[in-house]
Automatic annotation (TrEMBL):
PANTHER family cross-referenced by the UniProt entry: LARGE RIBOSOMAL SUBUNIT PROTEIN ML41, MITOCHONDRIAL RIBOSOMAL PROTEIN L41
GO BP: translation
Coiled-coil zones: none
Domain of life assignment: Eukaryota
Protein family according to the UniProt entry: Belongs to the mitochondrion-specific ribosomal protein mL41 family.
Subcellular location: Mitochondrion
Key words of the record: Mitochondrion, Ribonucleoprotein, Ribosomal protein, Transit peptide
The keyword Cytoplasm is assigned to this record: no
One Gene Ontology cellular component annotation held by this UniProt entry: mitochondrial large ribosomal subunit
Protein name: Ribosomal protein L27
Keyword Ribosomal protein recorded: yes
MF GO annotations: structural constituent of ribosome
């Protein structure tokens, strides 16, 4: 095939404009989580040092006295009366 016929074929098929996900790549494609490295390699040694300033810290609020649970049971019944905007904002 010539260059021109390849070009016409590519233009006719169109290009995928969706972002690449791990399911769309080949078996060696690893997208990662978007987070940065927590340390660096030491030059001249096969050693990796973790830097405390780069370690991820998760901020978890204090949930003592919190009324909601981690999940909603299937046994929960739907509310009988419809909620209005005011009811929702008051609660």
């Amino acid at each position: 095939m010539s260059f021109r016929s390849n070009l016409v074929t590519m233009l006719a098929r169109g290009a995928s404009r969706k972002p690449l996900s791990p399911k769309g790549g080949n078996k060696n494609y690893y997208k990662g989580t978007g987070s940065k490295a927590m340390g660096q390699f030491v030059e001249g040694k096969s050693e990796y040092r973790i830097m405390p300033s780069k370690v991820r810290q998760f901020v978890v609020p204090d949930l003592t006295g919190f009324k909601l649970k981690a999940y909603v049971s299937w046994a929960v019944e739907a509310p009988k009366a419809a909620l209005t905007k005011e009811d929702f904002l008051r609660s």
